[in-house]
Amino acid sequence: MSDHDDAHDGGHEDGGHEGDAHEHDGGYEMPEREEFEHNPLGHAEVSAGMTVGELVQQYGHAGIGAADVHEAADIYAEMLADEDCTVFMSLAGAMVPTGMRKIVSDLIRDGHVDALVTTGANLTHDAIEAIGGKHHHGRAHPGPSSSHSHGSQEHGSEHHCEKTPREHDETLRDEEVDRIYNVYLPQEHFALFESHLRDEVFPPLEEEGAVSIERLCRELGRANSEVNEREGIEEDAGVAAAAYESDVPIYCPAVQDSVLGLQAWMYSQTSAFTLDALSDMTPLTDLAYDADKAGCLLVGGGVPKNFTLQTMLVTPGAYDYGVQITMDPAATGGLSGATLDEARSWGKLEKDARNATILGDATIMLPLLVASARERLA
Questions:
Q1: 192 to 93, 231, 263, 288, 293: CA distances (angstroms)
Q2: Is 102 noted as a catalytic residue in this protein?
Q3: What Cα–Cα distance (Å) separates residue 227 from each residue in 101, 208, 366?
Q4: For residue 39, what is the DSSP state?
Q5: Full DSSP string of 46-68
Q6: Which one is catalytic: 102, 163, 348, 351?
Q7: pLDDT tens, position by position, 126-173
Q8: Rounded to 5 degrees, what are φ and ψ at 161?
Q9: CA-CA distances (angstroms) from residue 334 to 29, 301, 308?
């Protein structure tokens, strides 16, 4: 290539850079930005001795899930602090048997729940603990079992054979132990629960004939509270007892889907006792109708979530606050993963409602959320 060519190429490159610099220095025009707002991301800081509330506050500097937790905690604290707000709480999943029981009962006793919608399973496990049963730490997956070890010590190591997941649960079946992921419950506790229902809960209701499910839950709470005190049970009397003592209604729209429901059905076969599911709708909708403001904390999805949200479909208003914890994705179209923004389209939330969704394990997120809100209120 000639010197002339080199000079020509170099001049062309310089000219190009000069043009770019001119464009950026003097010719660039900031686009009109409707969505973007100057709000630089920060970086969360953690230190020894910081409180849960301080940690959640630090989440506000970050993005993705941390930002969602921070917003949800802010909304939940505002909901609880609003004296004009009626708070509905839905509780799905295995929250009671996995150790979240006292968090819920304390919220009820402290006046932070005006109505609870939950599953028959949570009420079953709640009653089991109230009357002396206990859930136990277990294993979600089988590990090495020394009882099945084989091999020779002269080789310097001991080999273990591991059970398959199926063999693990077959062993539990033989041992009469039920498994909820990594929680174990001996089956004799269900026998204790069934006796509790037949001796303490169902007989007073039998005299009334057809009763609402809320009435059943109230009677369960009364019995749990009385037996817990009478027998000197070390464990707290629990969720249903707290609701009974605090005059907070419990609604359990899918009670049949539980051991509590099964036992109620069996008892109804030989007595005048039966359940009237529709009779719960009036007091629940009245509570929503009369609320100056309404807020909901939705733990998990399923029937409790929808039952709580659909209450607003027959009232003039809608929820002013909404916080949900779920692990389900929205893209499947299922109710459990549906966003609260989607609920707004149905008229279940006000257009200007404050709402947030936390994606995560509720056994991790619920204590974090409640602790942060309590700290804010204090």
A1: 23, 13, 12, 37, 42
A2: no
A3: 18, 22, 29
A4: -
A5: --TT--HHHHHHHHTTS-HHHHH
A6: 348
A7: 999 999 999 999 999 887 643 433 344 444 444 456 889 999 999 999
A8: -95, 135
A9: 45, 9, 16
